């Protein structure tokens, strides 16, 4: 495309981004009178864990928590991140009890509670797997500003492109920062411990 076309394409993307942000802010302002610190990431959701127990945003409050979106058929990024989260939770020792960690599927069609339970056996028992109907999952994906899209594979199979950020949330459910797992488990644990 020409530089001029590229400029306009960029402007349109920028405008869409600004509109999305404005919509998000409006939603927050209209959503809750008590949300004095409007965070642009996080919010209400209703899902079930790998044991079929209902989980909402209320279950996440009171402890700092990690929220990671992915899917059990993921070939590399998800298992790597879940392994690194497991190491960090192990490095927390007894303090791990004062935190929560969630693995939220972006592929609820395949990731039933049973599938999540079997998959998470390879990782820390502290990590709870969350799933639900497509609509419920879409709601949480939207609240956390996660990108998730189905990509068809040959033979009718599919994979999911998705945001691979681990969200570090404080005890009030406010987003702190993306958690950098590419360092020693002790360093990751030390950062999480600051919010206990
Ligand atoms: Ni993945």
Describe what this molecule looks like in 3D:
The protein has 196 residues and is α/β, with parallel strands linked by helices. It has one domain (3-193): Glutaredoxin (3-Layer(aba) Sandwich). The protein has five helices and nine strands, in the order αβββαβαβαββββα. The chain has helices spanning 3-31, 77-92, 113-120, 134-143, 185-193; strands spanning 46-48, 54-56, 65-70, 100-105, 127-130, 148-152, 158-162, 166-169, 175-178. Helix 2 (77-92) packs across helix 5 (185-193). Mean pLDDT is 85; it is low at 1-38. It binds nickel (II) ion. The site of nickel (II) ion (NI) has 6 residues, from helix 2.
- Strand order within the widest beta sheet: 5-4-3-8-9
SS-based class: alpha/beta
Strand content: 15-25%
The Cα radius of gyration reads 18 Å
Q: Which spans of ≥5 residues are poorly predicted at pLDDT below 50?
A: 1-38
Largest sheet: 5 strands, mixed
What small molecules accompany the polymer chains?
nickel (II) ion
Describe the structure in brief.
This protein has 196 residues and is α/β, with parallel strands linked by helices.
Question: Which SSEs are present, and which pair or pack?
Answer:
Blueprint: H1 3-31, E1 46-48, E2 54-56, E3 65-70, H2 77-92, E4 100-105, H3 113-120, E5 127-130, H4 134-143, E6 148-152, E7 158-162, E8 166-169, E9 175-178, H5 185-193
Parallel strand pairs: 3-4, 4-5
Antiparallel strand pairs: 1-2, 3-8, 6-7, 8-9
Helix pairs in contact: 2-5
Bound molecules: nickel (II) ion (NI).
Nickel (II) ion binds next to α2.
Pick out its properties.
Glutaredoxin, alpha/beta, binds nickel (II) ion, 5-stranded mixed β-sheet, 196 residues
């Amino acid at each position: 495309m020409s530089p001029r076309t590229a400029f306009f394409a960029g402007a349109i993307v920028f405008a869409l981004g600004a509109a999305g942000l404005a919509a998000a802010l409006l939603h927050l302002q209209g959503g809750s009178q008590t949300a004095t610190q409007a965070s642009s990431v996080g919010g209400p959701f209703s899902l079930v864990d790998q044991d079929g127990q209902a989980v909402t945003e209320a279950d996440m409050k009171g402890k700092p928590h990690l929220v990671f979106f992915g899917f059990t058929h993921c070939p590399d990024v998800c298992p790597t991140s879940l392994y690194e989260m497991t190491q960090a939770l192990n490095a927390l020792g007894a303090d791990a009890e004062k935190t929560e960690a969630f693995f939220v599927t972006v592929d609820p069609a395949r990731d039933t509670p049973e599938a999540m339970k079997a998959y998470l056996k390879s990782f820390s028992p502290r990590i709870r797997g969350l799933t639900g109907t497509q609509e419920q999952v879409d709601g949480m994906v939207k609240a956390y500003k996660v990108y998730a899209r189905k990509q068809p594979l040959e033979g009718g199979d599919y994979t999911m492109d998705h945001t691979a950020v681990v969200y570090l949330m404080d005890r009030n459910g406010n987003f702190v920062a993306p958690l950098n797992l590419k360092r020693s488990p002790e360093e990751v644990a030390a950062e999480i411990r600051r919010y206990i």
